[in-house]
Amino acid sequence: MSGQVNGEVITSTSPVYMQNRTAVTDFILLGFQVSRGLRLFLFCLFLIVYCLILCGNLLIIVLVSISKNLHTTMYFFISQLSFGDILLTMIIVPSMLYILLNNGGTITFTNCIAQLYFLCSSEAFEGYLLAVMSYDRYVAICNPLRYSSIMTSGYCVILTVFCWLFGFSFNLIYTITTLQLNFCGPNIIDHVFCDIVPLLELACSDIFIVHLEIYVVGIPNLLIPITIIVLSYTCIVLTVVRIPSSTGRQKAFSTCSSHLTVVSIFYGTIFSVYVVPTKQSVTINKILSLLYTVFTPLINPIIYSLRNKDIKKAVQETFILVISNFFHNILQR
């Protein structure tokens, strides 16, 4: 294994490999080992994407907070999804930008484990939240008369709190075990962030328990949300097909289209990286990893905004309000 950090070629015989072989305190993230011109292009691209992710998701959070038309259950869950997307992006993208700019970079062992924990926890949280959102659509379509009495504001807050707790508590199990592993070198991770697979490949101690804990935690984190989503949409489809008018069926399905698109993108990228056994190159693995850490947080606010009349209306009203207040303040001066 070899790479470059700040222009220096790193190999298995380099001094950085030979020092601290008994206890690795830092890891070297190689990032994308490409030409300087391509790295600068990727840096600018991801910087723009990072700004768009923050602006898009913050806009949704602000609109849901200030617009009375968006004070509904569905938009509350969408704002929580935006919180999760911002957290996921802030964990990965800033360090990735630094790595691209410097052709590699170091990260302490503690920070690497912390990045791994928050990454996996954010993914788990979003999975549970997408399941809750599918249940919300199920209640809205299959039990419309009881919707307001079931999906109360207090109940929605409780469901969201459970999503955060489930997402950020279960992953502590294998994170703590990984923290106790011995890493004696090499200390080069050929990735853009600290992911579980390349990290465990560097461990000197037995990793059977970690793998076991990952399966014990990871399988429920996948199966529970997916089961809820499948059951919810099965009931939705059975209900919708019984609607006599085609207009009513189309309207019912349209309320689920955005959520189904987000679910498909989220689980499609997760499965392509962690579940489906493939033999793709390290570069392909890096690109696929960027799909769920960068592409998904970017596309989610776009999906929920482009076909959503309420959000478009809230944007227009907020823009008009800001402009009117701006000119009002100028005239007062």
3D architecture notes:
- The structure is a single chain.
- The strands form two sheets. A three-stranded mixed beta sheet has the order 4-3-5. The chain has a two-stranded antiparallel ribbon with strand order 1-2.
- By secondary structure, the chain is mainly alpha-helical.
- The longest helix has 34 residues.
- Helix 2 packs antiparallel against helix 3, helix 3 packs antiparallel against helix 4 and helix 4 packs antiparallel against helix 10.
- It has twelve helices and five strands.
Pick out its properties:
single chain; 333 residues; mainly alpha; three-stranded mixed β-sheet; two-stranded antiparallel ribbon; 12 helices; 5 strands; 5% strand; globular
Task: Report the structural category.
Answer: mainly alpha
Task: Write down the Rg.
Answer: 23 Å
Sheet of most strands: 3 strands, mixed
Kindly report how far apart the N and C termini lie.
Answer: 66 Å
Widest beta sheet: strand line-up? 4-3-5
Tell me the number of strands: 5
Shape: globular
* N to C succession of SSEs: EEHEHHEHHHHEHHHHH
Helix content: over 70%
Oligomer: single chain
| Number of helices in the DSSP assignment | 12
Strand content: under 5%
